[in-house]
Amino acid sequence: MRLSLQPIDTFFFKTHHVTEAGEHTVMESMFPPRPSTVYGALRAAYIHAHASFDEFAQGTNEQVRLWMGTPENYGEFRLQYCTLYRNEPFLPLPLDYQLIEEDSKLSAHSLQLSKDNGLSSVSNPWRLIATKRAKTKDAKTSLCKHDTLETSVARWKRNDRHYLVIFHRYSGRKSGHPA
User: Fold this and answer.
1) Cβ neighbours, 10 Å, residue 95
2) Is the bond preceding 32 in cis, omega lying within 30 degrees of 0?
3) What are the DSSP E strand ranges found in 19-104?
4) Fewer CB near the terminus (10 Å): N or C of the chain?
5) How confident is the model over 57-99, as pLDDT tens digits?
6) How would you write 104-155 as a 3-class SS string?
7) What is the rounded CA–CA span in Å between residue 132 and residue 130?
8) Each residue of 89-114: pLDDT tens digit?
9) What 8-state DSSP symbol labels residue 156?
């Protein structure tokens, strides 16, 4: 089953740092959110729609208990994969790629595994070598299209419409799986 979340307002996910009212603080955004954040939001939405949180805490609603579990135990609902999607999935840029900005466009180029017989304090002679002689950009927030990895890298932009796609797995047991 594939589930898509389309925002009607801005999604904002922050890091774990505490913020206090009245204090000068700077919050860092974290996007996409961690799968555990998405799981918790979907679990809470399902519980809210099908039972009260007291019923959930006590485990008295059979369907909610089997599907979403209890505060101590998980139910059958599982996230299998979570990614950004816009006509196709966007994936994190692999760490063995070099990210280069040319003419205001980003491109990704795979690093090559080469044997280096030069002097080194590292005993292993194999190195990942850049294929392009250019300054490499920070790829920490870079996402790429899965089928055009070599030529296309997409940076998250606030104005673009992306969807958060969640794939979840059902264990197959007969327990009143919601439609």
Assistant:
1) 8
2) yes
3) 78-85, 89-92, 97-102
4) C
5) 998 999 999 999 999 988 888 888 787 777 777 777 777 788 8
6) CEEEEEECEEEECCCCCCCCCCEEEECCCCCCECCCCCEEEECCCCCCCEEE
7) 6
8) 777 777 778 888 888 888 888 888 88
9) -
Residue with tokens 């003419």: 103
Phi then psi for 38, rounded to 5 degrees? -65, -45
Give me the residue label for tokens 């491109």.
Answer: 107
- Rounded to 5 degrees, what angle do the CA atoms 153, 154, 156 make? 150
Q: Which two tokens stand for residue 95?
A: 């760490």
Residue in this structure with the two tokens 């044997």, named with its chain if needed = 115
What element of type H or E holds 7?
A: none
50: enclosing H helix or E strand: helix 35-50
Q: Which residues pair with 14 in a beta bridge?
A: 29
